Amino acid sequence: MAQGLKVASHDVVAEGYARVAEALREQVRAGVDVIVVIGGTGIGPTNYTPEVTEEFIAARLHGLETQVLIKGLEGSHKAGLSRGVIGMTDRGCGSLIINSASSRGAVADTLGVVLPLLGDIFRDAKGN
């Protein structure tokens, strides 16, 4: 994976509020640095990923969300339909949670924007 990162786990979780919440809770408790949640960002009846994510976030990164949207709109007029949220679970030493729509293009756009900034994000979070 990019940036010298490794994937610690790859979990498939069905859409829905309770399932996504439990999966995020487990990863945050485990101290995972970066949690990427793919899917569930639309407006369908089981798409609650952004709402669940917001419950875990102490510092939302609206600017990064906007950068992802701008990048997505370069390739698809549908990018604005995603409601992905990005933020830190704790100011200082928490997990970074990244939501992405489930299309390959959306995942590439999201990671293309966020991964190069991981060092800066965690330095800023630690006050450096």
Describe this structure in words.
This protein has 128 residues and is α+β, with helices and mostly antiparallel strands. The protein has one domain: MoaB/Mog-like domain (Molybdenum Cofactor Biosythetic Enzyme, Chain A, 3-Layer(aba) Sandwich), CATH 3.40.980. Helix content is 42%, strand content 12%. It is built from five helices and four strands, in the order H-E-H-E-H-E-E-H-H. It has a four-stranded mixed sheet, with helices on both faces. A hairpin with a 7-residue loop joins strand 3 and strand 4 (96-100). The two termini are 25 Å apart.
Topology:
Blueprint (H helix, E strand, L loop, with lengths): L16 H13 L4 E5 L10 H8 L2 E2 L1 H14 L10 E3 L7 E5 L3 H11 L3 H8 L3
Parallel strand pairs: 1-4
Antiparallel strand pairs: 2-3, 3-4
Helix pairs in contact: 1-2, 3-4
List the main descriptive attributes of the protein structure presented here.
alpha+beta, globular, 5 helices, 4 strands, 128 residues, Molybdenum Cofactor Biosythetic Enzyme, Chain A
Provide the CATH top-level class.
Answer: Alpha Beta
Low-confidence stretches: none
Shape: globular
Alpha-beta content class: alpha+beta
Strand order of the largest sheet: 1-4-3-2
Percent of sequence in beta strands: 5-15%
| Tally of individual domains | 1
Largest sheet: 4 strands, mixed
CATH topology: Molybdenum Cofactor Biosythetic Enzyme, Chain A
Number of strands: 4
SS summary, helix count: 5
Spatial extent as radius of gyration: 14 Å
How are helices and strands ordered from N to C?
Answer: HEHEHEEHH
CATH-defined architecture: 3-Layer(aba) Sandwich
N- and C-termini, Cα separation: 25 Å
Helicity level: 40-55%
